[in-house]
Specification:
Number of strands: 10
Oligomer: single chain
Strand content: 5-15%
Radius of gyration: 20 Å
Distance between the termini: 14 Å
Helix content: 40-55%
Shape: globular
Order of helices and strands: HEEEEHHEHHHEHHEHEHEHHEH
């Protein structure tokens, strides 16, 4: 008897062999939370609960910190005086639940993932400003570690509230460490500043019976085995990384929730070289190679409105589920 799509997904997060290629549409990802303000209300422009100014960027269909605004922290040495962490005990969590409606998700059918925007590295950047934060990593590494650790303390309190009120199956930390060609900081610096604090988040979730997923776009191959080492349940990343190679290194102890190489398709489309057959062939090859041994869920962001966008790829996912069995 075939298991439900929810159970099939949870097998991947428990690092068990699924019955078949999982269907990511059985996951309900609360990516745009309105009840608390890691980003401004309704994921548009405005201020978040730290006072950071955001603007809406139409091209990417997402908000970003206003580069013209004065950062909250003027210098890394001043963060203790200048940062006011939100009082999570004073926050109206019952209103948050009312706005976001996590209790309306049918958890017999869907896996509920609470996607916390602005992970510890991203929050560090929003408070200092992008340029100053990157300089601080190199010029005052010890102070940067103290600041990131304090941000992690705040995140742990936030996770505690999310688990109590939202009751997710998964908490996903959105923290991008890579560009299309390399990491934004060296693997060594990531291991010194980010890794031990991410380990604290992963351990907290494990203690509370919640899976911890690390989202990180970009080319981050050097640190994926580190994520496995510190107890991250799942990595949400991109197929610009060598997924089959990484799966061999992590040996079934890390789930890969991985999007197709959408940038490659967009580039080919702009050159007039993209066809439906090419997309289907590439998606099928990518999934077939990456799905070996389980621990793999292919997915695709649903913001693309091009002719090839989501519909063709998702249809090919369904075709792959017909023949990829475990």
């Amino acid at each position: 008897m075939a298991v439900s799509e929810r159970e099939n997904i949870l097998k991947c997060y428990r690092h068990e062999m699924p019955d078949h290629l999982p269907d990511f549409t059985a996951m309900h990802i609360m990516a745009h939370v309105n009840g608390f303000l890691e980003r401004p209300p309704n994921n548009r422009g405005g201020k978040d609960w730290f006072g950071v100014e955001w603007i809406y960027e139409e091209t990417g269909n997402a908000p970003l910190p206003d580069p013209s605004a004065i950062p909250i922290v003027s210098d890394i040495s001043n963060w203790r005086e200048q940062v006011k962490f939100p009082d999570l005990d004073a926050w109206d969590w019952e209103l948050a639940v009312k706005l976001d409606k996590p209790d309306e998700i049918d958890k017999e059918k869907f896996v509920l993932a609470s996607w916390v925007m602005n992970g510890i590295f991203e929050r560090f950047q929003t408070l200092l400003g992008l340029e100053e934060s990157m300089v601080a990593l190199l010029t005052d590494t010890d102070e940067a570690f103290e600041f990131i650790s304090a941000i992690t303390d705040h995140k742990l309190k936030l996770y505690e509230k999310l688990i109590a009120y939202y009751k997710p199956d998964i908490i996903c930390q959105h923290d991008d460490y890579g560009s299309q060609t390399s990491m934004l900081l060296s693997p060594e610096l990531w291991r010194k500043l980010i890794k031990p604090n991410t380990a604290r988040l992963a351990d907290f979730c494990k203690q509370h019976g919640v899976f911890f997923e690390q989202h990180s776009c970009g080319l981050v191959e050097p640190i994926v085995p580190d994520l496995c080492e510190i107890g991250v349940t799942s990595w949400q990343g991109m197929h610009i990384n060598d997924i089959p190679k990484l799966k061999q290194q992590t040996n079934g102890k890390l789930n890969y929730f991985t999007t197709m190489d959408m940038q490659k398709y967009a580039q080919l489309d702009s050159m007039g070289k993209l066809t439906e057959d090419l997309i289907r062939s590439d998606v099928r090859k990518t999934i077939t190679e990456s799905a070996k041994g389980g621990s793999y869920i292919p997915f695709v962001f649903s913001v693309d409105e091009s002719w090839w966008g989501v519909n063709v790829i998702i249809d090919e996912f369904a075709r792959c589920r017909e023949f990829i069995k475990y």
